[in-house]
């Protein structure tokens, strides 16, 4: 009988049996393995790659086998589920901040189909493609942006439940407390020397350009906007989006998916964070 493989998980604090997950499990950590980073667009995948490669010295894979922004595919070998043989770090932003970021991105004719007003963007069909400016790219359509957020992270949590090595990281935690997040990732990867949670971590001075496994990795340059961790603050997003639009998002987001990303109690957090600016934004019109 084949020996069962186990993987130490920082999510559960126990060993997970991955013998039923297709593909041989490669040795973790210490420069001997790569790690796959996945997440929806603008969820912090480029920041995670930058920090993991710089401080943990582990190469990051984005698009080898499947797209980092795509719903995780059911890769099968007979009856065995495949996950690409690499541990997976999943980045996420809270749904309110995330959808506001997508709306901004959708106005530049990139991977999202261009959209007009925010209110119609939040409720209408949502299309995503690897690049809307290039032909012959894979496309996806969802009922609305919240449906994409739900589907993406539900699939990643479902993959984690099979025993695959999947670790969720909140962007707001990575941006505000990078050393603690790197410590958690290093323990998930079972590195022989976990990253010191008390270490100083130098964040990029400017926003990182998009990158993939083919083109040159994204870098922080003066031509790009300054990197601002405050952009991940929920209160700031609520003030921009308005409470009415925030309620539209919260109505469509599933509680179990929010819990899977580490955001149990997020609805109450929104109510507590919604200040006068968010309420006023809902009264002065739609955008």
UniProtKB/TrEMBL annotation:
One Pfam family it belongs to: Sulfotransfer_1
Molecular function GO labels: sulfotransferase activity
Domain of life of the organism encoding this protein: Bacteria
Sulfotransferase domain ranges (all copies): 88-192
InterPro entries: P-loop_NTPase, Sulfotransferase_dom
Protein name: Sulfotransferase domain-containing protein
UniProt source species: Mesorhizobium waimense
Organism lineage string: Bacteria, Pseudomonadati, Pseudomonadota, Alphaproteobacteria, Hyphomicrobiales
């Amino acid at each position: 009988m084949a020996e069962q493989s186990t993987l130490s998980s920082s999510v559960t604090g126990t060993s997970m049996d991955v013998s039923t997950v297709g593909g041989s499990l490669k040795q973790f950590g210490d420069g001997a393995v790569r790690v796959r980073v996945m997440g929806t667009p603008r969820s912090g995948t480029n920041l995670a790659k930058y920090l993991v490669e710089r401080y943990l010295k582990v190469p990051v894979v984005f698009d080898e086998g499947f797209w980092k922004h795509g719903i995780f595919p059911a890769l099968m070998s007979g009856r065995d589920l495949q996950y690409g043989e690499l541990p997976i770090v999943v980045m996420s932003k809270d749904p309110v901040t995330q959808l506001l970021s997508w709306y901004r991105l959708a106005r530049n004719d990139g991977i999202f189909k261009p959209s007009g007003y925010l209110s119609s963007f939040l409720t209408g069909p949502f299309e995503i493609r690897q690049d809307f400016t290039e032909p012959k790219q894979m496309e996806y359509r969802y009922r609305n942006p919240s449906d994409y957020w739900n589907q993406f992270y539900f699939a990643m949590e479902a993959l984690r439940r099979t025993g695959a090595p999947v670790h969720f990281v909140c962007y707001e935690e990575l941006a505000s407390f990078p050393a603690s997040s790197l410590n958690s990732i290093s323990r998930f990867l079972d590195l022989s020397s976990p990253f010191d949670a008390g270490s100083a971590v130098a964040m990029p001075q400017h926003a990182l350009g998009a990158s993939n496994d083919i083109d040159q990795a994204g870098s922080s340059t003066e031509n790009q906007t300054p990197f601002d961790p405050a952009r991940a603050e929920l209160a700031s997003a609520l003030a921009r989006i308005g409470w009415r639009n925030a309620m539209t998002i919260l109505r469509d987001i599933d509680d179990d998916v929010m819990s899977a990303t580490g955001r149990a109690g997020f609805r109450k957090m929104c109510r507590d964070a919604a200040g006068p600016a968010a309420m006023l934004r809902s009264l002065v019109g739609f955008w």
